[in-house]
Amino acid sequence: MGDLVPDTPSTPSTYVDGLAALLRHDTRVKVAGIDTDGILRGKVMAKDKFLSSAVKGFGMSSAIFGWDMHDVLYTTHTEIMSAEGGSSADFIAIPDLKSFRRIPWEDGIPLFLLRYVSSNHQPVFADGRSMIRDICAQLESLGYTAKVGTELEFHNFQTPSEDGYSNREQTRDLAGFLAKNGRKNLRPLTGGMFGYSISRPAMNRQYFYDIFDQSLEFGCELEGWHTETGPGVFEAVTCLSDPHPSDLATNVRRYLTKSIAIPYHITPCFMAKPIFGLPGNSGHIHISLLSPSGNNLFARESPDASAPYPDIVHLSDLGRHFLAGLLEALPSIMPLLAPTINSYKRLVENHWAPIHVSWGLEDRMSSIRMIGPPVSSASATRFEVRIPGADLHPHYAMAAVLGAGLRGIRKKLAVPVPPTNLRNVTELELLPNTLEEAVKRFKASSSVARDILGDEFVDFYAATREHELRSWREAVTDW
Question: What GO molecular-function term can you cite, just one (predicted)?
Fold first, then answer.
């Protein structure tokens, strides 16, 4: 892992020498950054070229922030690329040497993740990794260290073959199959609903355990790995860790899973809602703050008899401010938690997904589930943000969540609403239930998102989601 290489070298020559020693048996290196949809974009480089640019960086096309996940240029002008297709100058890609790992299923080729700076060496405002670095620096300046983790659910389908499913040796591209046959002909890896099954993984045990084992070897080990309710659905739970490696884990988890699935003729699907009438795929975020000595700052030393609500008797004042910041921000940051048209197909009643501005102690139907005493230990006190689906951009989502909590701390906000169990459903504020409504709230001149993330990013990201909306309006669907 990346601890073999210092993040900031004492001298460039010493730094490159150490890196060269690390890669002495390699001839090529893979590098990748994360685009606006949370997808890894990168290339293979000759080792000598990589070493010569490891300190100062190398040029990378700014187009990765100028098009959607299908390489269609944004139809709305942004500061990075105009609607006519003119892009800004190349960005400088800086390898994050602490992200070093080897890809076990690709003969151990080294992988380094990238962050991007402009020609004047300022962080690119659209780069999620730079956003995480900035928000963590703000927290550390106040003496806080964030711990975050994710739960990622995904469907698994049998990869269609040329003649349907009978000839698995002649697998064809999934997109091609869907264009010809329609998505209703996809066959889940297993049928029926059976969460936490200990027998169903045996039906595809080599694939199931390969993901677990190679996650460990790849440096994004799993804390939990099980079936989730739904046909062919698995859930991967990562350990709480620093945001830098943890937000990384969500991106590489999708990359790892899709790669491992290929020889098994399986297609993992990280859409928020692949199948009508069934629960969707969540991407819940767990978050807490620690002191420099490692103490949980959300935990209260002794119960607060004067707490305004029973649910927060054991929650510190800092934790209450953080929770208040989250609740106040939720309606404004929805496009960062639910970024696609499909995201809002998941956020419907009666499918274990939240639709209100809500919170509660151990309440899995709320947008914010608080975890802590008396159900859990004080050291495990944290918040679970349950709005995101598996289609989240983890960097954007985590930057928004951390920024919202930090805003609550700085403003010393009070928890604005009682927990869900003390309110009638008619009293609950609805979250935006479409991407169109979410973008309006997000880019409003007075939005909390602008206060957290700045006008430059909000205007850029709103334009990318407006492109999504325009593409959807022009599409002719089954409906």
Answer: ATP binding
